[in-house]
Amino acid sequence: MEQFWQQVVVPAFDGLRYSTLTSYTWAHPRVLLLLAAVPLLFLLREALAQRRRRKLGVAFVRGQARSHWSSLLRFVPDFVLALSLMMGLLALARPQRTDERVEQSGRGIDIVLAVDVSASMELQDFQPNRLGAAKRMAQAFVRGRRGDRIGVVAFAGDAYSVLPLTTDYELLTEELKGLRLGLIPTDGTAIGTALGVATNRLRNSPGRSRVCILLSDGENTAGSLDPLTAAQLAHAFGLKLYTIGLGKDGTVPYGRDEQGRPRFVETRLDETTMRQIAEAGAGQFFRATDNSALQRVFAQIDQLEKTEVKLTRYRNTHDYYRFYLYWCLGLWLLWLGLKNTFMVSAMED
């Protein structure tokens, strides 16, 4: 008996559960709007019947006419007919479920974004500051990629791998958003060390192309690895290096003093070293002095490093209208049977 219940009875009613109905996609969802009209049809029929029905006045003595539960049975045929109509409407709306399979042909590019988080990235020749602009453009770059694995390295006086290579772009965006000044306690600009960490991440990756994009606003002032040596080592492992120099040379705004007046500091980018790194890594050097220039730089890199990945989608759609059609026909036959019982008045039918 328990086996019959599990194999026959439970599946027969499973399609009537709310969770099952909401799991479908409907080929004709507007048909579902007619479900609300089914009760209205019976109310309209009752109203018209009341107007046509002849009434005979009969006097009863109070207390002699009593109601009985069996009087409710006259509503059973109408209830069964309403369910049959509703099941028919569900069948007409064509409930479906679609299975989608995605096949990827070709391999994407493996990219590491090495972002400077040293104290000088707080300078405000970019809006809101250099680091804020770099983060925003890097996030836009990530959202525009398809099929590429991307990792993040942060560096100041030292360098750390924030996120390994991944295709989880939502996680990448969150990690880029979380980069902040002071993330690395040791201040300075260890460009060579950052390139070493990026190379370590990319040297054994299976990507069709391996790219490191370095964003910095200063000269190498920390770390034990020379930037040019690190660039030559990266190139030996097959990495392509793009370097982006952030900021203007000269006097730039840097916060406000105790009286609320803007402060200014002198800054300089070691453009020569940044160019040498890009040349050693068979890439390019870009200079960005404001937000729009930085946006153009990322757009240009995006065009230079295009992914050749084809995604083939296979969709298999299953119809479930038969389940509701069978219910509709079964309830309709039940209604026809009930019409020949005491529940229906032959004079009113």
TrEMBL record:
This is VWFA domain-containing protein. PROSITE patterns: VWFA. The lineage of its organism: Bacteria, Pseudomonadati, Bacteroidota, Cytophagia, Cytophagales. The chain crosses the membrane at residues 26-44, 320-338. The keyword rRNA-binding does not apply. Gene3D superfamilies: von Willebrand factor, type A domain. InterPro entries: UPF0353/GerABKA_families (IPR050768), VWF_A (IPR002035), vWFA_dom_sf (IPR036465). It comes from the Bacteria. SUPFAM superfamilies: vWA-like (SSF53300). Residues 110-301 form the VWFA domain. It comes from Solirubrum puertoriconensis. Keywords: Cell membrane, Membrane, Transmembrane, Transmembrane helix.
